[in-house]
Amino acid sequence: MPTISLYETIMVVSTAVVVIAYHMNLYKKVRSDSLSTAIGITNHARHLWVQGVIRDKRDILAVQTLRNQVMAATFLASTAILVCLGSFSAAFRPGVFMEVSHSLNLLGTKTETLWMFKLMLLGIIFFVTFFNFTLCIRYYNHVGFMINTFQQNDSTVSAEAVTQVLNHGALHYTIGMRGFYLSVPIALWLFGPIWMFVGSLILVIVLYRLDREA
User: Is residue 117 classed exposed, middle or buried when 0-12, 13-18 and 19+ CB atoms within 10 A define those classes?
Assistant: First the structure.
């Protein structure tokens, strides 16, 4: 790893602190007052939805809803792995894009090794994103079988059990979407640390609104 300027180090650390602090606060909010957050509201809504589907045996509604969720997760997983492979490819084939990014990097460190590290980090984030969306698909497929069982007095396919599996899938979907969001400041880092820091502030402001609206 090349020598990184103090300015770049401060900007990178500040960005990490902003993003991590926000998500730690969100985690505490979900745990203490879940219905004041979009995550808690949607978890509660999914529980009511599962109860209604099982009670009224609305199997067609369940299949259609889960199909839509799986299609969305599949599209996002495909996009994530393509961007991941593209980032890894660009990291080992520096060219005109690196020159453009360096020209916009006014105060940050300008080395090929650091530029490759940024692209590798971006690729890793999208790989983790891809992995979470595939897990989301896995859980939704399980729910597709469980919710249509309609077996009485079986705790493994009860409304609570189905809701738990469904919410596991939704959690991985949320983490996958966070990966897309986090890629914005990381991508901006290619053009300099100040762009990354500003991007992280804008991202946190947007997420604050999204996380408090269902």
Answer: middle
